[in-house]
Design brief:
Blueprint (H helix, E strand, L loop, with lengths): L5 E5 L2 E6 L3 E4 L4 E4 L6 H7 L8 H16 L3 E4 L13 H12 L4 E5 L17 E3 L3 E3 L2 E3 L10 E4 L4 E6 L5 E9 L3 E3 L10 E2 L7 E6 L2 E4 L6
Parallel strand pairs: 4-5, 5-6, 6-7, 9-10, 10-13, 11-14
Antiparallel strand pairs: 1-2, 2-3, 3-4, 8-9, 11-12, 12-13, 12-15, 15-16
Length: 223
């Protein structure tokens, strides 16, 4: 793909892994993303930690580009939409509400994650469609926590999977990945102010790294 995306087949469907750490389902004009953690920087600033502003605006701009470039009609967020419940009026909620007004035709579905537990179904309820546990679309079951299901391929988040890539002279870099297993996938975090968790893939797993504005299929694990 000219935009750095990489096509994969999953549960009989053609999907695109996009460099902006999104999984696109072109046939349904849908994007799956995970772990936006909207308002995380604001939570830190309220605690006295001097985190710069701009993360929410930047992430919403990335969504704008995805919607425009791929004609998206639906976004499905696999948990941790918000970093924490808001104590009152918040800048990130105002920004998201204004963004939704501009993207009013878009369907925005949120499967609640552990960070959403106090806000699910309550905050921004006029802007998103909350689902407390899971949501199904065709062969895919959307959840926050990874794991298998009896009759569907599970799409999940929560872990923020990352791996180390090694170069010469003992150089290495840590990159986010989409971790695709035989019965479920774990998407990288979409939010620009999130950490990452190391994973232990097996030989049957597929790893796709997001780096240098491209998606890269990594070699199979030798174990």
């Amino acid at each position: 793909m000219t935009d750095g995306s990489l096509s994969v087949t999953c549960a009989g469907e053609l999907l695109l892994l996009h460099p902006d750490r999104a999984l696109l389902w072109p046939a349904q004009r849908t994007a799956f993303i995970a772990d936006l953690h909207l308002g995380k920087a604001e939570v830190f600033r309220r605690s006295g930690i001097p985190i710069p502003e701009g993360h929410t605006h930047a992430d919403l701009q990335r969504l704008d580009r995805l919607i425009a470039d791929h004609g998206l009609q639906r976004i499905v967020l696999l948990g941790d939409f918000l970093h924490a419940a808001s104590p009152g009026r918040s800048t990130h909620a105002d920004q998201f509400t204004q963004w939704r007004a501009r993207q009013a035709a878009l369907k925005f579905i949120v499967v609640a994650g552990n960070h959403d537990r106090r806000a699910a179904g309550r905050e921004l309820a006029d802007s998103v469609e909350w689902h407390l546990h899971e949501w199904r679309a065709g062969p895919f079951l959307c959840r926050h926590h990874p794991g298998r299901a009896e009759d569907a391929y599970v799409l999940s988040g929560h872990i923020h999977p990352v791996v180390f890539l090694y170069g010469s002279h003992r150089e290495r870099t840590r990159v986010p990945v989409c971790w695709m297993r035989t019965d479920h996938a774990v998407l990288p975090s979409f939010g620009s102010f999130t950490g990452g968790g190391d994973i232990e893939p097996t030989r049957s797993d597929q790893l796709f790294a997001f780096a240098a504005n491209r998606v890269w299929r990594l070699p199979a694990i030798e174990r």
